[in-house]
Amino acid sequence: MRFDAELLLLAMAPVFVGCIGWEAWHLSRTRPGSGIYSWRDTLCNAALALMHQAADKVAWLFVIPVYAFFYAHVRLFTLEAGWASFVLLFVAQDLLYYVFHRASHRVRWLWAAHVVHHSSERLNLSTAFRQSLMYPVAGMWAFWIPLAVLGFPPSQIVAIVLVNLAFQFFVHTQAVGKLGWLEYVFNTPSIHRVHHARNDRYIDRNYAGVLVIWDRLFGSYVAEDPAEPPVYGIVEPLHTYNPLKATFHEWASMFADAARMKGWRNRLKALFAPPAWAAQWHAARDVAQEQANAATGISSGAAGSGTKAGTVRNA
User: Fold this and answer.
1) How does it sit in the membrane (predicted)?
2) Rounded distance, CA 92 to CA 98, Å?
3) How far apart are alpha carbons 255 and 271 in whole angstroms?
4) What is the DSSP letter of 232?
5) Tens digit of pLDDT at every position of the chain (315 positions)
């Protein structure tokens, strides 16, 4: 089965924009004053999407030859185009997306790119556009190499990745409740709301792309609890609508932390340990700074609270 995913996404663009407009209108009538949408947040999301798309166009020029090399020299099978190979490609890529997504919450280098998607304190369909131009630098593309090894040509790999991401647009909404039996198989808005929440019970859960079966198999699934509504954003809020700051703030923090660390072991942890490790280091540093300020008679207000560097675990 062959199709042009880029043309499909181009055709879907008016659908995405229309859905955002409908959701904003619908929520303004059903939840007035909820603040689920704001112009500044939505425009920031749109700017991040344009930056991400531009970076992706450039990245594919370098990445597709990598896939082509593995396909030409390392592939295990030669798979004929058809429904059977399409289903295999779809399932394999969705599993690899789960691996990538979970790693992006457990490895700070990957989190530095992925944090952009989580840094808004709102969740709506425009949040799906909130992506990072740094994904190619972080290495997202490397997670799809096994597809080329299996025997899928580069064009099909690119297509299925784009289709998977296009599906995920529709789970970024608060306008849709639970969807019954579908939640045993597919990622849904309720399942993905949990993923974007910073509540303790929801952090680092529900990594699904299209199929939620991976979360259920690997123990990362948590259901949305009506008694505990999700609180969106990251644990250390970003407090900016500047798309450049949203893109680079965690990279700057990560490299600054690595420069401050003593010993190569700790410097590597600053780059590759779970984001929670950095959060604990930030907290210990801030406590030490407060104690030093108190010892010298400097109030915490005079010292300022801006010494925190970096973003901790996802919301």
Assistant:
1) Multi-pass membrane protein
2) 10
3) 7
4) B
5) 555 666 777 788 899 999 999 999 999 999 998 999 999 999 999 999 999 999 999 999 999 999 999 999 999 999 988 999 999 999 999 999 999 999 999 999 999 999 999 999 999 999 999 999 999 999 999 999 999 999 999 999 999 999 999 999 999 999 999 999 999 999 999 999 999 999 999 999 999 999 999 999 999 999 999 999 999 999 888 999 999 999 999 999 999 999 999 999 999 999 999 998 888 888 888 888 888 888 887 644 444 433 333 344 443
